[in-house]
């Protein structure tokens, strides 16, 4: 993509910072999607060849993804395998053939076939709508093959670079090499997008929802600040040197502090990891943490037509409990629905899945699902030294929390909590704390519901910024309500991974933070540099701000002034 050249001294571009630290380097842009030429009418005699070309393009994409999956491992392999299966779907090839037989050439037939599938997924909403980006990536690859062009993918300029794109497809993010890619910048996306989550896992500075990035051209030197959410084009040598020195200071500070989290004056803040798939277990268990603050169990239920039985679940849970022997593991029960539909647990005809039967609400539709899971967790915990806690997702009213707590305790699970992900739960957090042993705030969903802003809609990403004062006010209310009942209150959303925002959360009364393993060192060092009273003052500044940007700026300036 080309744009108006930027001149030295220009103001930085602003987006949402989702990966800590800074990095500099030349821009390398993702190749744009292949442009479709003018359509041509296919004569009857050409139909067999054109059908074969369309089917061959889909097969080539599927084969390419399969090869890449075989060369990858862990989540990258899973993502690429799933995409390859989508490309190999016979229904997609049949749809493309039907378009050819109506007179379209192969590239346009492929585009129309993918457009039809994408429209269906958009109409379904939730998880299905999120897969539209996958289809668009597959479409671009198939059309490129049909046109005889190279398939889109990551650039390879022959040197380390800052990757700039409109957005990143899963097939690309799955293969990012942090030794080559110094930072990520996307025009679209949001604080909970897969790009944001990947940046945290890889430890890359990243800025998303940065529309001004469209003006950045290949080779332009940039300085990316993942903490401030800024991208500076053509930075001076002095600015780059200063940022590099600050980055080195940050890394050394993170390396100096270890063990349990605490503020400079000794106030304890439990630091834990998030865990959501078996391949993450080794790195999560090796991290310097006090346990697992969010153990997502959906991996056992996805991509199958029937629920796993108690024996299969118990075996999977036991692996985690044994890996975290002597440490806390907070298990979130099945959060099906919305972005994680399951054929045996969720209805296919919900007009708005994000507001439908999801999380704990599925237990009303199918009580056996929850009962089996609680029994499996209890069985897996028996005989291990892990301190197993269990919590319910998407709790809305105190009666739901009470019913869940009673059911869990009937299975012998002693420490039971509720997630605060909807404003109603935050507003009644005191009553939730009366019937639960702890509360855990999921800032990703809480922001979505507080601002009526779809987490996957890039144009609303600013509303989902965890620095939004209204969101912080809900966190404050929840933390204070928990403290009044003597209950711990944690944060397990993406907000917990921000070292600067961590100071604010602790100042609001949060007692534990759970994030990707690679984020904990910076969060620990940040907490160790400030007293509890200083954190409280920073929290007051953030709450008094007009918006997310000013909240972040005020806290950053105040924090720098007391460093």
Strand portion: 5-15%
CATH architecture of the largest domain: Alpha-Beta Barrel
CATH topology of the largest domain: TIM Barrel
CATH homologous superfamily name of the largest domain? Phosphoenolpyruvate-binding domains
Radius of gyration: 24 Å
Name the CATH class of the largest domain: Alpha Beta
Salient structural properties:
alpha/beta; disordered N terminus; Enzyme I, Chain A, domain 2; eight-stranded parallel barrel; 3 domains; Glucose Oxidase, domain 1; globular; 563 residues
Describe the protein's architecture and organization.
- The model is unreliable at 1-8 (pLDDT under 50).
- Helix content is 46%, strand content 14%.
- It is of the alpha/beta class and 563 residues long.
- The protein has 3 domains: 13-31 and 154-251, 3-Layer(bba) Sandwich (Glucose Oxidase, domain 1), CATH 3.50.30; 45-146, PtsI, HPr-binding domain (Enzyme I, Chain A, domain 2, Orthogonal Bundle), CATH 1.10.274.10; 258-531, Phosphoenolpyruvate-binding domains (TIM Barrel).
- Helix 3 crosses helix 4 (106-124).
- It has helices spanning 47-71, 74-87, 90-101, 106-124, 126-130, 132-146, 170-173, 194-202, 237-256, 281-286, 310-323, 362-365, 367-381, 398-410, 423-427, 429-435, 443-450, 469-484, 499-508, 520-528, 532-544, 548-561, and strands spanning 13-14, 16-19, 22-29, 161-165, 181-186, 206-208, 221-225, 230-233, 270-275, 291-296, 328-332, 387-392, 415-420, 438-441, 489-491, 512-515.
- Helix 14 links the parallel strand 12 and strand 13 (415-420).
- The chain is built from 22 helices and 16 strands.
- It has an 8-stranded mixed beta sheet. Strands 9-10-11-12-13-14-15-16 form an 8-stranded parallel barrel, surrounded by 6 helices.
């Amino acid at each position: 993509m080309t744009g108006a050249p930027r001149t030295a001294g220009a103001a930085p571009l602003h987006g949402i910072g989702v990966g800590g630290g800074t990095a500099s380097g030349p821009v390398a842009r993702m190749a744009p999607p292949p442009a479709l030429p003018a359509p041509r009418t296919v004569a009857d005699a050409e139909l067999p060849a054109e059908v074969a070309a369309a089917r061959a393009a889909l097969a080539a994409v599927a084969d390419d993804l399969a090869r890449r999956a075989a060369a990858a491992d862990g989540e990258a392999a899973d993502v690429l395998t799933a995409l390859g299966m989508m490309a190999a779907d016979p229904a997609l090839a049949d749809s493309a053939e039907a378009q050819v037989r109506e007179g379209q050439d192969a590239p346009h037939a492929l585009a129309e076939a993918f457009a039809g599938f994408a429209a269906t997924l958009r109409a379904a909403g939730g998880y299905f709508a999120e897969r539209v980006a996958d289809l668009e990536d597959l479409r671009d690859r198939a059309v490129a093959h049909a046109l005889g062009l190279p398939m889109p993918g990551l650039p390879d300029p022959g040197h380390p670079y800052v990757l700039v794109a409109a957005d990143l497809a899963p097939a690309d993010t799955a293969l990012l090499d942090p030794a080559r890619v110094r930072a990520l910048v996307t025009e679209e996306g949001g604080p909970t997008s897969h790009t944001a989550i990947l940046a945290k896992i890889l430890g890359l500075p990243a800025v998303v929802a940065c529309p001004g990035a469209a003006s950045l051209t290949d080779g332009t030197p940039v300085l990316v600040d993942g903490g401030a959410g800024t991208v500076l084009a053509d930075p001076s040598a002095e600015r780059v040197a200063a940022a590099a020195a600050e980055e080195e200071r940050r890394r050394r500070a993170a390396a100096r502090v270890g063990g349990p989290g605490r503020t400079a004056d000794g106030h304890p803040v439990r630091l834990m990891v998030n865990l959501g798939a078996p391949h993450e277990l080794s790195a999560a268990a090796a991290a310097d943490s006090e346990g697992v603050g969010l153990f997502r169990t959906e991996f056992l239920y996805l991509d199958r037509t029937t629920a796993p039985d108690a024996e299969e679940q118990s075996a999977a849970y036991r692996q985690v409990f044994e890996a975290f022997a002597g440490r806390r593991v907070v298990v979130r029960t099945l959060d099906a629905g919305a972005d994680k539909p399951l054929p045996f647990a969720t209805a296919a005809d919900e007009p708005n899945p994000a507001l439908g039967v999801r999380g704990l609400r599925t237990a009303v539709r199918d009580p056996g699902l929850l009962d089996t899971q609680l029994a499996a967790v209890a069985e897996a915990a028996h005989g291990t030294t892990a301190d197993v806690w269990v919590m319910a997702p998407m709790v809305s009213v105190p009666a739901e929390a009470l019913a869940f707590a009673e059911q869990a305790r009937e299975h012998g699970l002693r420490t039971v909590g509720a997630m605060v992900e909807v404003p109603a739960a935050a507003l009644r957090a005191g009553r939730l704390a009366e019937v639960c042993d702890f509360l855990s705030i999921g800032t990703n969903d809480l922001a979505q519901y507080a601002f009526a802003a779809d987490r996957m809609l890039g144009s609303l990403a600013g509303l989902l910024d965890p620095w939004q004062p209204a969101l912080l006010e809900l966190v404050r209310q929840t933390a204070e309500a928990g403290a009044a009942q003597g209950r711990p209150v944690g944060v397990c959303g993406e907000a917990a991974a921000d070292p600067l925002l961590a100071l604010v959360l602790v100042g609001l009364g949060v007692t534990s933070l759970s994030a990707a393993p690679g984020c904990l060192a910076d969060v620990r060092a940040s907490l160790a540099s400030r007293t509890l009273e200083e954190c409280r003052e920073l929290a007051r500044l953030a709450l008094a701000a007009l918006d997310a940007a000013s909240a972040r700026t005020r806290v950053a300036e105040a924090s720098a002034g007391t460093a």
